[in-house]
Design a protein that fits this description.
Layout: E1 2-7, E2 9-11, E3 17-24, E4 33-38, E5 45-50, E6 57-59, E7 67-72, E8 77-82, E9 91-97, E10 102-103, E11 107-111
Length: 113
């Protein structure tokens, strides 16, 4: 089982980034997927979740209207499109599959001018 993340980096406030998480080793299209984040000195928090078919999504209040979770089951990949980024969005972001209990390696997102 592998979840390999890409994307992230440094962006100015108000900017956008897209994170990707490519899955292998399990039946991706049967797995709900989530994105979490952990800021320095804080606990890991749930950012967004998408159902196995992609027809249902939920978001943390802090990102609602700015972030969009999506998936491409043909590519075994889940995405997190982040817009209108704020300094408080700075964190390490992780994808997660509750079906297999596996985490991606983490990707740093830094929002700073």
């Amino acid at each position: 089982v592998q979840l390999v993340q890409s994307g992230g980096g440094l962006v100015q406030p108000g900017g956008s980034l897209r994170l990707s998480c490519a899955a292998s080793g399990f039946t991706f299209n049967r797995s709900q997927m989530s994105w979490y984040r952990q800021a320095p000195g804080k606990e890991r928090e749930l950012v967004a979740t998408i159902s196995s078919t992609g027809d249902s999504t939920t978001y943390a209040d802090s990102v609602k209207g700015r972030f969009t979770i999506s998936r491409d089951n043909a590519k075994n990949t889940v995405y997190l499109q982040m817009s209108s980024l704020k300094p408080e969005d700075t964190a390490v972001y992780y994808c997660y599959s509750p079906r297999v209990g596996s985490w991606g390696q983490g990707t740093q997102v830094t929002v700073s001018s």
